[in-house]
Specification:
The chain is mainly α. Helix content is 43%, strand content 7%. Strands 1-4-5 form a three-stranded antiparallel β-sheet, with helices on one face. A hairpin with a 6-residue loop joins strand 8 and strand 9. Helix 6 packs antiparallel against helix 7 and helix 7 packs antiparallel against helix 15. The longest helix is centred in the first third of the chain and has 42 residues. The chain is elongated, with a radius of gyration of 32 Å.
């Protein structure tokens, strides 16, 4: 649990990269001999369990809900991609994920008022009645039944009232806010969204485009206001620890017998081809840990950052791979070459050490996720700390297996600063629906409860127990007798 929580990070609370100077050295986190010793027994190990492509942060209900919804949306996308390859009847899972009901549920999960009502619903309908009926009490069973029915009714009415009153109001407010943003002045938009390409918000005639889905950012991707929704990948696992089924998802069937005792660079598949040649450049990940951060890959990957060889910068790659001829990693057009072409700068031979450091990302191996980082750094405002640059999740992608082919837009510090200001100013958008709708929900609950109890549960509030006249007379005589004894007089 501890290791899992350590990977649940926001994009602005990641490890520091103080510098890439000689006094702050970095190195590829792997020991070749250790890897070779583990290779025979480890790389054919367990595949683990498939899971939703995300982990959840419990730093607040709003963020938790957004991350759950994101995970479900990606599960839906993955299911669509996989089901499109297979003709025939849809499975139950496919039907659910492609249904309008599922889309509606994802939409509801973006409203915090609904989540609060749903949590109250679970407590009132299940937990509280169970507690009432289970615990011993001096009251009668009828009193317990009434209390349980009252609790269940409150849960149902509260949830229904939130759906019918609070959520429509919240949707209307968000719709008005989006329309307001779409019509703001360019100066205001530039201040609020430094990453927005202002040329994309007008058509060829110079008229404002009010559909924000058509807007672009300066990286050429679809414009997104959300700076906290970072692109995530499954936490990369070393190649020696990857299960056989996961290798098959990368299109590789390992030759178990031929690979025993060999380095990863020499592994072959059942067709006799080198495994490293069949992996795409983007899917090679290396773990880089910085000097003084006190951790190695064999001890939980603490304080370690993962980078795809396709997206890692020359500076960090050169600092991590001391013997690498960095010029050999680039083609004539300046694009990164596949690592089979990389050279050792001292000998001119193939730089095979990079393969011993190979990590692969797949949710069939782990439920943990990490941001997909660029080695480009930014300086955090206020603290002055240096952080790696994460990416927005504003491109359609799936990372069930491997690293995305297309990456989102860079999350720059200027955009984070502007987002922080906007977040503070727009708190009323989150609070207002709850403030206004809460009295209405409470009123509806109070008004409907008696009718539900009577017509649904056939229960009415128990009346105070009334003793019979004979019992009342006996009680009165007993009280008089006690009074007489106290005063020293006989009872008449």
């Amino acid at each position: 649990m501890k290791n899992r929580l350590e990977t649940m990070m926001k994009i602005h609370t990641t490890q520091n990269l103080n510098s890439l100077s000689t006094n702050q050295s970095t190195s590829v986190s792997n020991t070749k001999n250790d890897r070779l010793k583990r290779a025979e027994n480890s790389y054919l190990g367990s595949n683990g369990l498939a899971s939703l492509p995300d982990t959840i942060s419990f730093e607040g209900k709003g963020e938790a809900v957004e991350k759950i919804a994101k995970a479900l949306r990606e599960a839906k996308l993955v299911q669509k991609i996989e089901s499109s390859k297979v003709a025939g009847k849809k499975s139950i899972t496919e039907k659910i994920l492609s249904s309008d009901f599922f889309d509606g549920l994802l939409d509801l999960m973006t409203h915090e008022t609904f989540i609060q009502a749903a949590i109250s619903f679970l407590i009132c309908v299940f937990l509280r009645p169970l507690t009432i009926m289970s615990l011993p009490t001096k009251k009668s069973k009828e009193d317990n039944k009434y209390a349980s029915a009252h609790s269940m009714s409150s849960g149902f009415v509260g949830l229904a009232s939130s759906v019918l009153i609070a959520i429509p109001f919240s949707k209307g407010l968000k719709y008005a806010q989006n329309n307001m943003i779409a019509n703001l002045k360019e100066e205001t938009l530039k201040r609020m969204f430094p990453h927005l390409d202002l040329k994309s918000i007008v058509d060829s005639a110079g008229k404002r485009i009010t559909d924000m889905k058509q807007w672009k950012d300066k990286f050429g991707n679809v414009f997104s206001k959300d700076m906290k929704n970072a692109m995530l990948i499954a936490k990369p696992i070393h190649a020696t620890e990857i299960g056989e089924k996961t290798w098959e998802k990368f299109g590789i069937k390992l030759n178990k017998e031929a690979n025993k005792g060999k380095a990863i660079a020499e592994w072959i598949d059942l067709d006799g081809k080198r495994v490293v040649e069949k992996l795409g450049l983007k899917d090679f990940c290396i773990a880089v840990e910085e000097a003084g951060m006190g951790s190695t890959l064999g001890k939980g990957y603490k304080n370690t950052n993962f980078f795809s060889l396709k997206y890692i910068g020359d500076d960090l790659l050169e600092a991590a791979c001391k013997d690498l001829d960095i010029a050999s990693t680039k083609g004539a057009n300046g694009e990164r070459l596949h690592p089979i072409h990389w050279k050792n700068k001292a000998t001119g031979n193939a730089y095979t050490e990079i393969f011993d450091a190979t990590h692969l990302s797949s949710y069939t191996e782990t439920a943990d996720s990490v941001p997909l980082f660029l080695s480009k750094v930014r300086t955090e405002s206020g603290t002055g700390k240096t952080k790696y640059t994460a990416l927005q999740s504003n491109v359609e992608y799936q990372t069930r297996v491997g690293v995305p082919e297309k990456i989102g837009s860079e999350i720059e510090q200027a955009s984070l600063d502007a987002d922080k200001v906007s977040d503070i100013q727009n708190k009323w958008v989150v609070w207002l629906p709850d403030i206004i709708s809460r009295p209405l929900v409470a009123t509806a609950t109070i008004a409907l409860l008696p009718k539900i109890l009577k017509n649904v549960f056939h229960l009415e509030k128990p009346k105070k127990h009334q003793a019979t006249p004979a019992v009342q007379q006996n009680q009165l005589e007993g009280e008089n007798a006690k009074l007489a004894l106290t005063s020293g007089k006989e009872v008449a």
